[in-house]
Amino acid sequence: MEEHWDKFMHSGAISDYLEYKGIEMCMAIMRKYEEPGDGTGEEDSGADNVDGNGPFDHSYR
Question: Where does this protein have compositionally biased stretches of type Acidic residues (predicted)?
Answer without folding.
Answer: 36-46
